[in-house]
Amino acid sequence: MTTWRKSKFILQSLGTLLGSLITAAGIVWFLAPNQIAAGGVSGIAIILNKLFGFPVGRSMLAMEIPLFIASTLALGWGFAARTFLGALTLPIFVDLLTPYLQPATSNLLLASLYGGVVTGAGIGLVFRSKGSTGGTDELAALLHKFVGLPLGQILLFIDGLVILGATLVFGVEKALYALITVFVAARVIDLVQEGIISAKAAFIISDHSEEIACNIMTRLDRGVTSLAGKGAYTGISRHVLLSVVSQSEVSRLKEVVYETDPQAFVIVTDVHEVLGEGFKKFN
Questions:
Q1: Distance CA 157, CA 24 (A)
Q2: Percent of the chain clearing pLDDT 90 (strictly above)
Q3: Is there a contact between 46 and 112 (Cβ–Cβ < 8 Å)?
Q4: Is 156 exposed, middle or buried (0-12, 13-18, 19+ CB in 10 A)?
Q5: Which of 223, 207, 203, 222 is nearest to 261 (CA)?
Q6: Using CA atoms, how far apart are residues 173 and 87, in angstroms rounded to an integer?
Q7: Domains of the chain (ranges, CATH numbers)
Q8: Chain centre to alpha carbon of residue 116
Q9: Looking at residues 253-263, what average pLDDT do you find?
Q10: pTM score, two decimals?
Q11: I need a labelling partner for 178 at 20 to 30 A (CA). Which of 32, 64, 262, 274 fits?
């Protein structure tokens, strides 16, 4: 293994550990003490804690071990390697943190919102580090292999069953709060993986595309890509310019375009992550 690969592996492992720790904190601070079972193995463990008094972390670990063994046998060591660290450490962190972290709030709305934010941030960091927290991910992967249904549908079905169980145990109101947590966590996971909106992509259609491209490159010092385009109605061929700029440069970009061609057609759209010259480096 090269030095670069070793460094990358260490960083990914640290990211997985930190993400698991953050997820565990969200469960201990917000979800478990307020009996918000927002799907997944942690949701099942919260239900079991209510019914039988089992510690949440140990219940998660007890469910995780057979799932991990089954997924390793069925899906191979590659899947197991990505799953092992997060799946093992998350339940351990939950039980380690429980004696020291007091519930942050007893307000169900706040608990569901911030529980979603914190657990979503942790899981998003794990995913960004090329890891997994295991649990229902493993069960979904197994069912996908043997049943053939899409992973997203399987995960949605499993989480739905967990929330249905929470409805029977905790009542409808807490199940509704659990749905809020699921929604918020999903949005935060996407945000962590894709990044906060940091740039804008502009598509520019004009009869003066060469002049506009030259002005963007010289006045904004931004690159421009010229794409071949053709009007579906007119049949006229034109160049479509693509340029990615920072949010603070959008006004200047529009000024450059409309000074050159007031009739230009411009589409500006959000970009969550840009890798390359002038923006972030790939890691």
A1: 23
A2: 47
A3: no
A4: middle
A5: 207
A6: 30
A7: 3-194 (no CATH), 199-271 (3.30.70.120)
A8: 12
A9: 91
A10: 0.77
A11: 64
What is the per-residue pLDDT across 122-145, written as a single tens digit (0 to 9) for each? Answer: 988 888 887 888 777 777 777 777
Among residues 145, 140, 170, the alpha carbon closest in space to that of 157 is found at 140
Cα–Cα distances in angstroms (integers) from residue 108 to residues 9, 53, 176, 181, in the given order: 39, 21, 10, 10
The residue length of the chain stands at 283
Show Cβ contacts of residue 243 under 8 Å, excluding neighbours closer than 6 positions: 201, 202, 204, 216, 220, 222, 223, 224, 225, 253
Percentage of the chain lying above the pLDDT 70 cut: 92
Q: Tell whether the model's pLDDT for residue 79 goes beyond 80.
A: no
Tell me which of 8 and 56 has the higher pLDDT: 56
pLDDT-derived band at 8, boundaries 50, 70, 90: confident
Tell me the two tokens of residue 283.
């890691």
Residue among 279, 251, 248 at smallest CA distance from 266:
251
CB 60 within 8 A of CB 91: yes
Hey, what are 227's tokens? 């794409």
For the stretch 106-115, pLDDT in tens is 999 999 999 9
pLDDT averaged over the chain? 86
